Amino acid sequence: MVCANLCIPNKHGAYGVVLKVSIQLRYYVLQSTLFNLYICSMSESHKAKAQMRKGVLELCILRILKDHEAYTSDIIAALKKVDLLIVEGTLYPLLMRMKNADMLEYRWEESPSGPPRKYYRITKKGQKVLLELEAAWVAFVDSVNSLQSPSSKSHE
User: Fold this and answer.
1) Got the DSSP string for the chain?
2) From first to last of its 156 residues, what are the pLDDT tens digits of the chain?
3) Domain boundaries, the chain
């Protein structure tokens, strides 16, 4: 085991040995740092995927409501069914923003088991926005797919 001295000047400018550091310890610290960087990059990937999901939620909600109205839990179930996991705490503010932008409207219906339920439906403006978002989505996916490397294109 090789040791190195870490020397730091004191308040009088004199150097003294403060810490002996072994090369072996440095190896483990480096290994731990690389592992932490890997974990961080994994969480960055997870964050990026979450941001992508958030970016298409308006389009997804408008698609779900295109042909019929739905209760909030129905919207969540439809999103989960296609692996676009979402929690109610994320959905409610988005539904409210979309309602305030006149893309959605809702009606209240009494529930036989509990409080009244709010059913959402798409508006005429929401249908127009849906068409615009679908066109933008197709163009976006085409642009991203055009960036595939030559090796991944040859596997298609």
Assistant:
1) --EEEEEEE-TTS-EEEEEEEEHHHHHHHHHHHHHHHHHHHHHHHHHHHHHHHHHHHHHHHHHHHSSS-EEHHHHHHHHHHTT----HHHHHHHHHHHHHTTSEEEEEE--SSSS-EEEEEE-HHHHHHHHHHHHHHHHHHHHHHTT--HHHHHT-
2) 444 444 455 555 554 444 444 444 444 444 444 444 444 455 777 777 777 777 799 999 999 999 999 999 999 999 999 988 777 788 999 999 999 999 999 999 998 888 999 999 999 999 999 999 999 999 999 999 999 866 665 555
3) 68-139
What's the CATH fold of domain 68-139? Arc Repressor Mutant, subunit A (1.10.10)
> What pTM, to 2 d.p., does this model score?
0.65
